[in-house]
Specification:
Structural class: alpha/beta
CATH class of one domain: Alpha Beta
Radius of gyration: 28 Å
CATH topology of one domain: DHBP synthase
CATH architecture of one domain: Alpha-Beta Complex
Oligomer: single chain
Mean pLDDT: 93
Strand content: 15-25%
Length: about 775
C-alpha cells in the first residue's frame, strides 16, 4: 500500500488516536490489530503509560468506519473513557504492527480488575485433547489475573508476577499470533512453562503435586477438614458447606462465631438449587467480576444451618479461577469460601505468610507459585431498590475508577476506621481502593499503608492533600497527620457520606442528605448517626437529627445491645424502667446507676443504635458477635413487610429539629408488654422510620428549597428501609440519589472525602 493517491481513487491520510480507560490487559491491542487488518489499514498500536496509542493510515472514509468500530466492537472488558484523534503525516508502513509499550508522561491509563475464567478457557481446560487439559492457570485475553499481579504500567508481562515464567515455544507462538485468543495475553502459561500447584500439610511439607494435589485436597474436604486455598488475590479457607461439624471447627478456629459465610458453587445450575435468583443476580454471579451475591435462600438447599445462622439469605459466588473449577467439578457440592485470615486481620496472599498465620486453622494448604502483589477480598453485592448495590467493593471491581465531575488537583483520602477503603482522586477519576477491613490492629494498619503505597506507585501520583475523618483517634487519621510535607484536612464523617453520593452521580449540589449509620464523630464531638444534612462539596450544615439517647458504657453497648435498650428505656421513661423480658439474665443495677448519675453514658443520635435498642427490647439479640447483627435480625424478622407507623413527632432544639425517639420507645415498650411479637414491632418500626424520614425530607425542603435527596450510610444496607423510603420520597416529588457503584457504608466515604478535599484546594487557589 503506497502513499498519496490509492487504487480506489481516495487520498491517504494518517490519524493518531489516543484512547484512555480500561484498555490494557483486556485484549485491546489485538482487537485494534485485527480491526485494522480487516479494513486494510496500515500503522501501529502500542500501550503507553496513558492508555493505548494508535497511528492508522488509509482513506478518510475507512478511517471513520475504523474509529467508530473502536467503540462499537471493543472487547467486552474494555471501557473507553476518552478517545482523541489528530492528523499526523503519512508513514511508509506496508502493514499494521503492535509496537513495544512506552512511557509518555505521567501514568494515566487504567488497569483491568481480575477477571473470572471465561467460557472458552473453561471448555479447553476440560478437553482431554487440549494441551492445557486440567491446567489450573489457564487464561486468555478475556480472563485471568490482572490487578492482583501487576506492579507498574504500561501493563506488560515484565511488570507482572509472570515475569519469572519464561514462555515455552507453544505459548510464545500463541502470544505472537494475531489470530489467537492469547495474542498478547500477559499471564499466558501452560503446564510446560507456567506456575504449578501443590498440596502441603500445616508444616509446609509438600504432600502431592499437580492432579494428585487436587485429589488429596478433595479427600480432605470430604473428611470435614479445613483447606487453605491460594486463589486469585488471596487465600480462602474452605470446608464442605453441608457439614455442620466442619463449619463448627472453622468458626472456632477462625474466631467467627456467627457471621454468615459465603458458599462457592461450580455454576449457575448449582446456585439455583441453593437460592431463588433474580435475573440480575444471575447475570452478576456469572459476570467476569464474579462477586458474592446475597440472595434469598431456598428452604431446603442442603446447606448446613451454620453457613448463615438466623439469616434468610445466603452469600453465593461461582467458581472464578481454573483452580476453583477443578476443585468443585470433582467435589460435587458447595464449598464455604471465607477469607484466609483470622477475624479482623487482612487476607493472606503469600505462601509463607499463610503457613505462618493459618497454621492453627487449616489442616491442609493448596498452594501455587504465582505471586500475588495486591491482596483483595471477594466483593459482595445485594439486590435492593431495583438494582444490585455493593456492600463490599474489592476483587473484580477494583481498580476500576468512579468517573467524577470536573478536574483538579490530586487528592488522597484515607477513609474511616471500619470497613476502610482509601481513595486516590486523579483528574476526573476516583480510584477507590479495595476493602481493607477494620483498622483495629497492626496487620490491618500495615495493609492500609501497603495499599496506599501501591495506589500512589501504580498511578504515579503525588497528591497535594490527604483527607481524613474528623475522629482524632482513628488510625487512618493518625497516619494522615503524620505525613511529612503533605497538608491534611479533616472532614466530618456524615458530610463525607453525602459527598460520596454526589460524586457517584456526578452531581455538584447542594442537596438534602439523609445519612444513617452506626457511628460518626460529629462537629460537636458527640456520636452522630441519624442525620438530616444540607450541603455540597464546599459546605454542609446539620438541619435535623435523631434525638440523642444514652449509651451506658459507651463502646461496650455496641457489642451488647441490651445495654443500649436499657439506656433508651431509661431515657424514654425518665428512669422508671418497665419490666420487660429482655433484661432477664443481665445485671442491670450497675448500668442503671451509671444512667442515673450520667457517668460514661455518652449520647448518640445513631440510627444504628436505635435498631440495636429495639432488637434488644424485642428479645432478638442481647449481645452480638459481629457488626449490625442485631439490626439485621430485626430487619429479617419483618419478613419484607411494613406496617402502620407508630405515632411520631419532631421537636426543636437550638437551631435544628429532632426526630423524637422517647415517645417512639414508649410505644414500642408498651406494645411488647402487651404481647406483641418481634415481627409486628419490626414492621411498625420500619414503617415509622419511612414516614418519619420522609417527613424530615419535606421539612428540609421547606427550609432549603431543595428537592433532591441523597441517601447514604450503612443503615441503607437495610433493604426494607431503603426500598420503603425510596418509594415514598419519589411519590412526594423528590429526586432521590442512592449508591450503586460504591458501598453505602463506610467503604464508600473516602470517595466523598476526596471530593471535599479537592473543592477545598480549588477554593484556596481561587482566593
Amino acid at each position: 500500500m503506497g502513499l498519496g493517491r490509492e487504487p480506489w481513487g481516495g487520498t491517504t491520510v494518517r490519524r493518531k488516536i489516543e484512547i484512555g480507560g480500561v484498555v490494557q490487559g483486556v485484549g485491546f491491542r489485538p482487537f485494534v490489530f485485527n480491526l485494522a487488518r480487516r479494513h486494510g489499514l496500515v500503522g501501529c498500536v502500542a500501550n503507553t503509560s496513558r492508555g493505548v496509542e494508535i497511528e492508522v493510515q488509509g482513506s478518510p472514509e475507512v478511517l471513520d468506519v475504523f474509529t467508530s468500530a473502536l467503540r462499537e466492537e471493543a472487547p467486552v472488558q474494555a471501557e473507553i473513557l476518552s478517545l482523541r484523534t489528530s492528523s499526523v503525516p503519512p508513514g511508509a508502513e506496508t502493514d499494521f504492527q503492535i509496537l513495544c509499550s512506552r512511557t509518555i508522561g505521567p501514568a494515566a491509563t487504567l488497569i483491568a480488575p481480575d477477571l473470572a475464567l471465561c467460557r472458552d478457557c473453561l471448555r479447553e481446560m476440560f478437553d482431554p485433547a487440549d494441551r492445557r487439559y486440567l491446567y489450573p492457570f489457564i487464561n486468555c485475553t478475556n480472563c485471568g489475573p490482572r490487578y492482583s499481579i501487576v506492579t507498574a504500567i504500561p501493563y506488560d508481562r515484565p511488570a507482572t508476577a509472570m515475569r519469572r515464567f519464561a514462555m515455552c515455544e507453544d505459548c510464545r507462538r500463541e502470544y505472537d499470533d494475531p489470530g489467537d485468543r492469547r495474542f498478547h495475553a500477559q499471564p499466558v502459561a501452560c503446564p510446560v512453562c507456567g506456575p504449578r500447584v501443590w498440596l502441603s500439610d500445616a508444616a509446609g511439607t509438600e504432600l502431592a503435586g499437580a492432579q494428585a494435589a487436587f485429589a488429596l485436597a478433595i479427600e480432605l474436604l470430604r473428611d470435614g477438614k479445613i483447606l487453605a486455598i491460594k486463589g486469585l488475590s488471596g487465600f480462602h479457607l474452605a470446608v464442605d458447606a453441608s457439614s455442620a461439624p466442619a463449619l463448627a471447627r472453622l468458626r472456632f478456629r477462625k474466631g467467627r462465631e456467627e457471621k454468615p459465610f459465603a458458599v462457592m458453587v461450580a455454576d449457575l445450575a448449582a446456585a439455583r438449587k441453593l437460592a431463588d435468583l433474580a435475573g440480575d443476580e444471575e447475570v452478576l454471579l456469572a459476570s467476569p467480576a464474579a462477586p458474592i451475591v446475597l440472595a434469598l435462600a431456598r428452604s431446603e438447599n442442603g446447606l448446613a444451618r451454620a453457613v448463615a445462622p438466623d439469616s434468610q439469605r445466603v452469600g453465593l459466588l461461582l467458581a472464578y479461577t481454573p483452580l476453583h473449577h477443578l476443585l468443585l467439578r470433582e467435589f460435587g457440592g458447595g464449598l464455604v469460601m471465607t477469607s484466609g485470615n483470622l477475624s479482623e486481620e487482612p487476607i493472606c496472599i503469600d505462601n509463607g505468610e499463610a503457613l505462618a498465620r493459618l497454621a492453627g486453622i487449616a489442616d491442609g494448604f493448596l498452594l501455587h507459585d504465582r505471586d500475588i502483589y495486591v491482596r483483595g477480598d471477594d466483593s459482595v453485592v445485594m439486590q435492593m431498590g431495583g438494582r444490585l448495590r455493593p456492600l463490599r467493593r474489592s476483587r473484580g471491581f477494583v481498580p476500576k475508577p468512579v468517573q467524577v465531575e470536573g478536574d483538579g488537583p490530586a487528592v488522597l483520602a484515607v477513609g474511616g476506621e471500619l470497613k476502610n477503603a482509601v481513595c486516590l482522586l486523579k483528574e476526573n477519576r476516583a480510584f477507590l481502593g479495595q476493602h481493607l477491613g477494620d483498622l483495629k490492629n497492626l496487620p490491618a494498619y500495615d495493609f492500609f499503608r501497603e495499599n496506599i503505597a501501591h495506589l500512589l506507585k501504580i498511578f504515579a501520583t503525588e497528591p497535594q492533600l490527604v483527607v481524613h475523618d474528623l475522629h482524632p483517634d482513628y488510625l487512618s487519621t493518625r497516619w494522615a497527620l503524620e505525613q511529612q510535607g503533605l497538608p491534611a484536612l479533616a472532614v466530618q464523617h456524615h458530610h463525607a457520606h453525602l459527598a460520596s453520593v454526589l460524586a457517584e452521580h456526578r452531581v455538584v449540589g447542594p442537596v438534602i442528605g439523609i445519612i444513617l449509620d452506626g457511628t460518626g464523630y460529629g462537629w460537636d464531638r458527640t456520636i452522630w448517626g441519624g442525620e438530616i444534612l444540607v450541603g455540597d462539596y464546599r459546605e454542609c450544615r446539620r438541619v435535623g437529627s435523631f434525638e440523642p439517647m444514652p449509651l451506658p458504657g459507651g463502646d461496650a453497648a455496641v457489642k451488647a445491645p441490651w445495654r443500649t435498650g436499657l439506656g433508651y428505656l431509661h431515657a424514654a421513661f425518665a428512669g422508671r424502667i418497665p419490666e420487660l423480658p429482655f433484661l432477664q439474665g443481665y445485671s442491670a443495677g450497675p448500668l442503671l446507676e451509671m444512667l442515673e448519675r450520667d457517668l460514661n453514658c455518652p449520647k448518640t443520635s445513631s440510627c444504628g443504635r436505635l435498631f440495636d435498642a429495639v432488637a434488644a427490647l424485642c428479645g432478638l439479640r442481647g449481645e452480638i458477635s459481629y457488626e449490625a447483627q442485631a439490626a439485621i435480625a430485626l430487619m429479617e424478622t419483618a419478613g419484607g413487610r411494613l406496617a402502620e407507623p407508630y405515632q411520631w413527632e419532631f421537636y426543636e432544639e437550638e437551631d435544628i429539629f429532632r426526630l423524637a425517639l422517647r415517645p417512639l420507645i414508649r410505644q414500642i415498650a408498651e406494645e411488647i408488654g402487651g404481647g406483641a411479637g418481634p415481627a409486628e414491632v419490626s414492621r411498625r418500626l420500619h414503617g415509622t422510620l419511612v414516614a418519619m424520614l420522609a417527613g424530615a425530607a419535606e421539612r428540609a425542603r421547606e427550609e432549603s428549597g431543595l428537592g433532591r435527596v441523597v441517601l447514604s450510610g450503612g443503615v441503607f444496607n437495610n433493604y426494607l428501609l431503603l426500598e420503603g423510603l425510596l418509594a415514598v420520597l419519589f411519590a412526594r416529588g423528590f429526586e432521590v440519589l442512592a449508591h450503586g457503584q460504591v458501598p453505602a457504608g463506610d467503604g464508600g466515604i473516602a470517595l466523598g472525602q476526596a471530593m471535599i478535599g479537592r473543592q477545598y484546594l480549588l477554593d484556596r487557589a481561587a482566593d
